[in-house]
Amino acid sequence: MGVGGRGGRASASPRARLRFVAALAVFGVAFVTRALAGAGGVAPAQQTTRDKVFAKAQATRGSDLYAKHCDRCHDPAKVPPGKKPGPPTIGPKFIETWQDRTIGELFGSIMNTMPSDGSITLTADQTLDVVAYMLQANGFPDGPIAMKNDDATKEIVIVKGQRAKGKGRGEGKKGRR
Ligand code: HEC
Question: What DSSP state is assigned to residue 102?
Answer without folding.
Answer: B
